[in-house]
Amino acid sequence: MRPDDITPDEGGRVQTVTEFNRRVKELLKGGLPPCWVQGEVSNLRVQASGHVYFSLKDAGAQLGCVLFRGDATRQSVKLRDGLQVLAYGQVDVYEARGQYQLITRALIEHGAGRLQQELEQLKQRLAAEGLFAPERKKPLPLLPRTVGFITSPTGAAVQDFIRILQRRGWTGRLVVLPAKVQGEGAAAELVAMLRTAEALGIFDLLVIGRGGGSIEDLWAFNEEPLVRAIAACGLPVISAVGHEIDYTLSDFAADVRAETPSGAAELISSRYLDCVERLSRAGERLDELARTRCAQARQQLDHAHSRLRLLSPTAAIEQNHLRLDDLRNRLGSALRASLQEGRQSLAAARSRLAATSPEKRVQLESHRLLALWKRLESASPQSVLKRGYAIVRDEAGRPVARAQGLAPGQPLVNEFLDGKVRVRVE
Fold first, then answer.
1. Hey, what CATH topology would domain 133-274 get?
2. What does the pLDDT read at residue 247?
3. Which residue of 13, 289, 376, 404 sits 20 to 30 Å from the alpha carbon of 395, by its own alpha carbon?
């Protein structure tokens, strides 16, 4: 068939690119279950969002991978270009570009998978023997006076351990028991030092551990001879290996597991600080009780002293002096009160006498008479004329109050303040 003879109808329904990529995605995800893929890390990119993009490659091909932020924070492997790893994930298709990639969920370094299987098998076998049973665990001493730390004397872990004990004021004695903590022969050295510490008989507590590292770095603490030696040790043992996320078989065999060597130092010093605090509280309580009892005794002594003073002749004389002073004060107060009362009575009598005196009544009546005269004076015709008015009278001398009733030519007399004027009505 020639290309010109192929039509869209013969190929089925026409699909968009998005639809086609979605079908590919469904086929890949449905046909390929999650699995482990081995390869070398390359093109490593860490985005500001926290997502990690990289490729896994071998001699013949490469595979795009993405490790989202939530999964990336849970990984103990520090990715770098060229690192051989095993990646566990699910294939997916990024439809926008038509690219498939491995959505990675877990990472371990190449070779760690085999070690992990061996570790799990040994753990199950030792657990079946009862080496990790809780009833085998020994309690830690409340206040260990001498602590032995089996570790590398040049590692950072021992410096952190010492610094925390010093900062928290721990007053016990620490002895660093040097031993290799990784590599060939490390487990044998740790076992020998553990037995030496037990034979010395000077330690109340042992700590065995080191700082963090890969599973290969920590492997000495997973070896069977060391695990059995820790479980069989007659002294209480704290295992402090690696970081918080690191677990070794020594952690399960020890009496107590600390997340880190620093955590072991905090555990030891915390128990010490608890005792110091309890002792401090007891001292404060004792001081408080002593102060209370002293205050009660002082109060009883004062009471007895007061009673003794009351029974003595001196006290009676002093009481009589006080009574005499009191009577003198009361007599003086009574005399002053009587004198003040007499003065008030005299003042009241003077007031009543002044109120009934004729002179005052004469003055009052004079004022009333003057007021009446002023009222009479203001109502007199002479007072009206002084204000600029005139009084009109007829020939008979009668006052004329209205213009109505007057006849033209009628003679009238206008009386002013300074004289009279004759007039006629017009």
1. Rossmann fold (3.40.50)
2. 83
3. 376
